[in-house]
Amino acid sequence: MSKSFLYKINTLLKIQYSNMLEYRVEIALWAISGIIPFFMLNIWTNNGLNESINLSKIMLSRYFISAFFVRQFSVVWVVFTFEEDALLGKLSPYLIQPLHPFFRYFAQHIAEQLTRLPFALLIALIFFILNPESFWIPAVKTTIFAGLATFLSFLIQFLMQSVIATFCFWTEKASSIEKLLFIPTLFLSGLLAPVSSFPEFVKSWVYFTPFPYLINFPANLLSGNDPNIISGICMQLIWVIIFFCIFAKTWKSGTKKFTAMGL
Amino acid sequence: MDKIIDVNNLSKSFEVSSKEPGIKGTIKHFFKRKIKKINVINDINFEIREGEIVGFLGANGAGKTTILKILCGLLYPSKGYISVSGYRPFERKQDFLKNITLIMGQKQQLIWDLPPMDSFYLNAAIYGIEKNKAQKRIDELSEMLEIKEELYLPVRKLSLGQRMKAELLAALIHKPKILFLDEPTLGLDINAQTNLRRFLKVYNKETGATILLTSHYMKDITYLCKRVICIHNGYIQYDGKLNRLLTQLTPNKDLSIICKTIKDVRSLSKLGYKVKNKTSNEITLTINKNEITKVLKEIVNKFDIEDIHINEPPIDETVGKILINKI
Lengths: 263, 327
What we know:
The structure holds two protein chains of two kinds. Chain A is an all-alpha fold. Chain A has twelve helices and no strands. Chain A is globular. Chain B is of the alpha/beta class. Chain B has two domains: 3-247, 3-Layer(aba) Sandwich (Rossmann fold); 251-311, VC0802-like (2-Layer Sandwich). Chain B is globular. Classes of the chains: A mainly alpha, B alpha/beta.
């Protein structure tokens, strides 16, 4: 990676972080809105469902707090921003600058995650005060791998949405296509329940899709449920490469269709 | 001067879906879309030399902005050959992008909630300009544009004129060789328009940058451009000097004569020239520009004149004829 490219990315991150700090209340609300895993934890433990998957209450609550963390640092909204920029003409100046426009969106997401960090830690602190028995400190190696897996999960989702975002070049409402992904992401990613609790039939194919690697794999890793780290990370890398290749193709053909609307 | 832009047989068409009004039309549109092909640019050719300021004239929808969009690499041409500074614009090579800039009136690239300085530093980084060099460049341009303290206020707090200056600064930070300006003075007040025009003229003189401009404010064109390209329905109707176009369009001048007696007014109206207006002591004659000296001599010698004025037809009115396709 060249020095000049790093200088571009570094400045972009700093500026986007300053921009995100202007919206700190909004980001706090976003962080709070990501507490679905806690509701799910409540449903599971109050109904004793954890016993059916041979997971103790403590391990299950660790899974869901980990799922909360993974979700906080892998939320993606690039399709919505890109769609707005493409329709309102904001994309045009980005297209004629010597930096791929998606680096802007990428930096926006990273900056947002950094802004979100203190709020996420605060929510976790409250969670552990209310559930002191679930508190644990993961090993350094586990934390590093879980961090990597969470970043790769973010990358998969970012690229997946970026592919859909490029459909804006053909249709004005690409974000509607993204809604098709919402249901499988919600149910198959492990946000509502660990994938190990799924019926055998679902488990037989779900690991061939990208969804379990979005929440289930990094959350299991962080909570100490010991998934297969190497195969999990390899699968994540494969999905990153697949979506990157699709993105490169749709971007190349899409920009030829660009009509520079709103300009 | 070397050729910097070369356009040969350029065409661009878009496909758009059309819909009949009403619920019936909506249902039909839902099941079967009627796709229409619109030819926006039709086989045009032109060249632009380094350092020129060229104005694109034409009515709304004539194709001016589409040409600028193609030249800066935003749109992919349907047909034809284009070379801008030796590059094919649509390939959007880094070196090409470092040579150009596009400024759109009312559209902004500055980050809304941050001071313009942050956007400048970001642009500087994107164009690979070191921070100290960027600061020097910002100082130079802010002095030329007469904008200083405002650069530290959030963009949303700036007036339209201040924002436009900041937009210009952001767009020029990398010293582009070619400026594409699409309605740069749109919405600005008279003073801000004048300042912007002056700035562009000085910028062109000092840097030798080539400027391509579209504007519906004729003062932008007459102040900045020696050469104009008139577009109508995607075709070039005129490409040449603005003065020559104006002479072609308005071969006459108006001669307003204030006489001492009504008798003189009557006699003047019988000289055989076209009478535009007549009152009790004033008459306006329309005279061919080539005959003006001769006619003046004749009038001064024959009549007792109190005052005399020679008026050019308003340039806005003249160029307006181009916009409504009267050439």
